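Memo subject: From amino acid sequence to discrete backbone structure tokens
Keywords: amino acid chain, backbone geometry, structure tokens, three-dimensional fold.
Body of memo: The sequence and its backbone structure tokens, given next.
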Amino acid sequence: MLFSPASLQRHLAGMGSQSLPLLHLALHLVVTHGEKAVSIDDLLRTLGSAPKGLEHRRELRGQVWNWLIFFDSCQVIGVRPRDYFDTGNKMLDLTSRDALFRIKGTHYAADAEPGAPPLKITLEAGPWLDQFRFNHKVLSYTGDCQRLARIPTGQPSGSWAQGIGMALQQRWREQASHKAQPFTRRSLFSLFHVEPDVATLLASHTPSRAMEYWDKAIRLLCDYEVVGDYQPVKPLPEGRQGWITAWWEQPLNIRPTTSITNAQIEIASNAVRHQGKHSRRSSSGRGS
């Protein structure tokens, strides 16, 4: 299945706001473990889903399963870094196509109906992704996204919290080696789709709901120890005229919690230890 970046973004937007947290959750599992068995219900719990009855649980299982099938079909496509020469000594450009991750195994209930999703699956990192298993930068990123995935999304504020949080994770890493700059709401919402759509809500008859959802989303990010400090650089102007543009472009200082920083340090330390064990096993396997 081939997508351009733009068409993939549109497809993901149509899949629902929790599909992206699920992708990051799956990536975290395979980057951390290489191969990992997990139940669909465990994925739902980690995603903060609260099924309302058996029928709703079945519906959510089917949704998660369909998303995983789509991600399983995705490929990482690129040009091999080394030159390759054929038997006629002609240099060729080779393009690799590797699975991002694979659904290696499925486990169904004995009395499962045709078309029902499995109860348990086994995920495996693809060849390209497997090379990052001991990279602490990748591990810390996916670990932080796993924290965001736990935010309940039954209300619009939860969906917004996940989208804002993922945008913040990206912006914080971009600024890691530079002096931190204020963010605007427009810049954060430009990165990840949220439901309901912000621009659509601001153009509706009740644009003030955007302010309500934003405030609740920030409180959720604070409660889940993602945001540690949140301060507008300057207040919004008084009066109602033009407040939407001012709200969109208001500069904000938003910083992560120390728990996220400490978690990144711990993940980095674990990655170094695992890398050391891996290197020692490789050396012993070669013999003397």
Remarks:
- The mean pLDDT is 81.
